[in-house]
Structure formats: structure tokens, C-alpha cells
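Q: I'm writing up a methods section and want to include an example of the input and output format. Could you take the sequence below and give the corresponding predicted C-alpha cells, formatted cleanly so I can copy it straight into the document?
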Amino acid sequence: MWNTLVRNDSHDASAGIISVLVKGITQLHKKGLPATCILLFDEAWQLAKIGNKSLKASSHSKNVFNFDILAWYIDPSEGVAGFSPHRDRQPERRKEIENSFHSTGEAKYVTMWMALTDATPENSCLYVIPKPFDPGYIAGDDDGEDGEKGRNGTGTGVDNNPPALASDPLSRALKTKQSYQNIRALPRNSGESVIFTHRILHWGSKGNQRCINKPRIAISFVSSDPSFEKPYLRHRNKYWCDDKSSEASASASSRSSTSLPPFYIRLLLVCAQLLIYYQRFDLPKDTIRACYEYCKEHNEELDEAYYKKVSIEFVKAMREEAQETNLVSKNDDVEVSKCSIEEGEAGGVNDADDDEAEEALLQAMLENASEGDFSDDYDEMVEGEEDDGDDDGDDDGDEELIFGEDEEDLADISLIMTSGMEPEKKKRKL
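A: Here is the clean output for your methods example:
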């Protein structure tokens, strides 16, 4: 069955939309902005509508589009790679893993990963370990003596099993040199995609630095059962319409913009996703703080569990930054130094008293909140594997810039990312 490994699925998505997205993400990269900022523009959502059709046709009827969207720009010449090996979701115990599948065996969390440019072993493509060769796919990872699991490779099960009893998922799946032959590369042409479950071990390879191919640019969409993971937007139906009757086509750009999320919701998702995956992006402290301030301002739009995760990741990011600047004692467990946020600093930061109250609240959340309801393998990241920094990248010669008012739009995005100030709302279209 497709969900036991991965489904090869070629999509008749609009070549025009994909071409525009590739140019847009390339321009974002040149400006030093993460590829996920492409969600600010209409074409990303038009492609999401197309992708949602495939997700609906390929997954359980109870699964719905949940707004978990990411985009990547991987240029091997820069020495970067895709995400390191992981599972998309990591329930703590075997019973919870079993409950993350429907009674039919179909997963309650399904990802569609689409290549916008050709993805090959040369410039980076996905690799997976198929279910039949992955002992942790259903049984879970880091089994202790009592059969209960530790968490994300920590080896701390319910009986405080020592780390020595734990083994990471890759080590269990690749115990012998012959087992490495079970690894599958999944190259894709532009516009093709793969659909896989939350339990598939997968990663983005590090391409050949001397590769002459274009950078690997990709985007992913997710469908999930709300009983397992709710859509990230609390008012999902207000901003998303599952149109079963209309056919997705290259004429998607002519659709009414009212069927797409408004700009402030797109920006909210960008800010939230950058915080959730902050370890994957080289973001300045002020940008991380600006993203959180914007999420806090619009938190009523976000699902409660998702916003809690966003807040926890913000605290972790601030703590790490403070530790790096020697502003936090090594013996402190989760405290974010009050010195790490300067009084009166621009960018939407409150006064010192408000900062202290906010830090205390978020510290309590970090200490007391259970992350089991929203857990993945990104809590222990290997640094330096993906970098969306400045690069001259791919030059398209005399082709016109694809943003309608490109410099103004990119200046607006940069303003938001660095100061938390939102420019005058206007339709964003590539």
C-alpha cells in the first residue's frame, strides 16, 4: 500500500505557476529571506489548492489541509543540504503511534513534497528508508526495558531508562552494511511529487558542490486528521475552501482572491513556521522576536496547541541566543535572561516590566507544558545543514523581475522580518 512506503505521484500542476514560484523563491534567497516567505504570495496558495486535491485523493477522507507548509532553496554550491534524517511526527508511546493511523491503516498525517525544480542526487533529493526495513515505523523508537519509549533520542522513558539503552532510528534501521542497500533515493522532475506518512524516515541529501544543475527548490503541504493534529488556523473554514467541484488548472490565477487567505494570515503562518523551525534558518534575534510579537498579536487566529509550540520554540531560541552571549548561567534550566531583551528596543518589544511578565509566563509554559501533542524529530537539530543566506544564485538573464512591485514588496517583507511592523495591507501577487 502507498502509505507503507511512499507514493510516486506525478501532478499536472500548472507549469506557469511553478515557474513563477521558482523565480520568486530565487529572488527571496537573493534578498536573504527564507524560501517559506513565498507563502505571502498568491501563487503559493494556488499551488496549495492543486496539491490539496492530490492529498484528498491519496489519504483518508477525515484528513484535511492543515496549513503546515514549508519551502526550500537548496544550492549545493553553497555547501548546504536539506533536513537531516527524521520522522515528521514522533508520538511518545507505541499505542499513540498506532492511534496516529486510521483503522484502515491510512495515516492521520500525510505530507506531499513537490519539486519545483528538478531534484536529483546531484543537487539534493529526498531519501527514505521503506517501512519494511524500519523497525521503528510502528514499534516506535528508543524502546526501554518496559517497552515504553523515550523521546526524540533522549533515552528517558517512563522508568528513566539510561541513554545507553536508547538507539536512534537510523542506527536501528541500519544495523548491518547490507541494510544500507535498503535506502531509496526519490529524484523528481519539476512539478512531480511524493506523498508519504509521518512515520517514514526521510531526509534531504547534500548535493555535489560542483553540481552544475540549478538549486533544488521544493515546497510541501500536509493533510492531517484533526483528532491527531488540528489545522494550524483556528478559523480554517474562513480562509480555506475545499472546492470538490472545481478542477485545478493553469487558469488558477483567474480565481477570486477571496478564496485565498488574506495577507496578514499568510504573514502569520510565515512567522509561526519560522519560529517552529528556527534552528533550520539563520535568523537574527530581532527577526525571531519580531516573528513572535506578530504571532502573539494574532494568536487568536492560531490553533491553541500550535501557538503553544510557537511560544515554546521562541523561548528556546531566546535561551540559546542568551547562552551564546554568556547572559544566562549554564545551571539555569529554561530561564531566558532578562538582559537578552533590551528595554525600549524597537520592533514591537514591550517595556521592561511587560518583558519580565512575558518571560515568566513563557518560562512556565516551557517547564510545565507537555510537548507530546505536537512533537517531531526537530528538537535535536544538527546545525549548519541548511542556510538560506545571501547568494547570487541562478541568474535568469534578461527576464523581468516577477514581483509586480518587486522592490517595494521585498522591502515590505524585510521590514516585517526585522522590525515586526506590518506595511499597508495590499494584495500580494507574483
